[in-house]
Amino acid sequence: xxxxxxxxxxxxxxxxxxxxxxxxxxxxxxxxxxxxxxxxxxxxxxxxxxxxxxxxxxxxxxxxxxxxxxxxxxxxxxxxxxxxxxxxxxxxxxxxxxxxxxxxxxxxxxxxxxxxxxxxxxxxxxxxxxxxxxxxxxxxxxxxxxxxxxxxxxxxxxxxxxxxxxxxxxxxxxxxxxxxxxxxxxxxxxxxxxxxxxxxxxxxxxxxxxxxxxxxxxxxxxxxxxxxxxxxxxxxxxxxxxxxxxxxxxxxxxxxxxxxxxxxxxxxxxxxxx
Length: 274
Prior knowledge:
mainly alpha; globular; 11 helices; 274 residues; single chain; 72% helix
């Protein structure tokens, strides 16, 4: 598993260097705010699909969605190449003046990134349905069918709620390392807690949480009175992470949290049988 993550990370870093994502190292990183938007989006989509396939070939025998985890970890390389949310706001203010429209751009970007994740998941699921991927006990269709849509929606809400709570504790600044680690750990905790309660058997119900949290954060910051984004500062905690942070470290942490909770659940079942 570690090897597939490392390969995907290096591949995404190299692609970022070649295709200029971001255009300037350690500065702004927003796919929809940089030159060549369409090319950048295509590169990210190809990287997600390619890294998922590559990760599945290497580590697919471990877990069905191991390739998607590796791809999300790889995608984090693009964000690490760039700067912080504060850097993005300051760059936008210098280029266009203090425009709150940047938050609508971030909302659109996060939604597009999650659309790419959904497309990648659909491709992975199609391969499984076609029996081209090894079956995994974590994806028991009969067991998953027993969960109602209410259970699944409550799992999403619980994951997002726990993630929000953890981010308020962990993400005290918009420093890149702190943001990435905070989003990862918060998503991990949220997925683990939600899975232990609702036992929904498909990981997308857990990695949807970072999408909700990110959208909430950007909307909150956009409409907050007395916001200080004009000075390149982020007032609310949830708006300190960039769309690429929520779309990479978020799903990666959520998938690992889901795996961990499933393993703990199985261990408890085995102990009860003994």
